[in-house]
Amino acid sequence: MNGGGDPSWEAATNPDISIGLVESTEGSIHDNGNIFWNPSLGNYTETGAVLSPATVLDHEFDHAVKRLTNTKEFNKNVQTPDKDYGNKEEKRVITGSEQKTAKANSEIKDGQVTRTSHQGTPVVTTGVTSTKIDVPQTKKYHEMKRRKVYEYDAEPDI
Known about the structure:
By secondary structure, the protein is an alpha+beta fold. It has one domain (6-153). It has 6 helices and 8 strands; from the N terminus they run H-E-E-E-E-E-H-H-E-E-H-H-E-H. The protein has helices at 6-13, 53-69, 71-79, 88-95, 97-104, 135-153; strands at residues 20-23, 29-31, 34-37, 41-44, 50-51, 81-82, 86-87, 121-124. The strands form 3 sheets. A 3-stranded mixed sheet has the order 1-3-2. A 3-stranded antiparallel sheet has the order 5-4-8. Helix 1 packs across helix 2 (53-69). The model is unreliable at 149-158 (pLDDT under 50).
């Protein structure tokens, strides 16, 4: 452990916590106690930071752990809007554990923040703990996503 990753550590060492982890080809999300994670996708933010897939995973673990250990607060935070972060739960994670993990992983410098909103652009990195963007693979990923959205939104042939 390099000083970050508290939510992941809690999930791994607390016998009362059980979180499903599923590898995804889409983005990474927490959904009802499960995490769908793309180990190739990091996040490029409006502050110029690149978060590694590992930091993105820890972000999702924070949501999952909070949901299981303090459901009432988690639900209240999710339902409380925040103009910058979407809701108070995203603000809690982004301004809390995400900062600590990104700093410990040398993804941000002293005084820098990962982001000031819940926005970001998915980027393919060269490894799970890397912040180096694989530009050809990132372009390929976004082309695939546009094609997929187009095909999904198109009227079916009947």
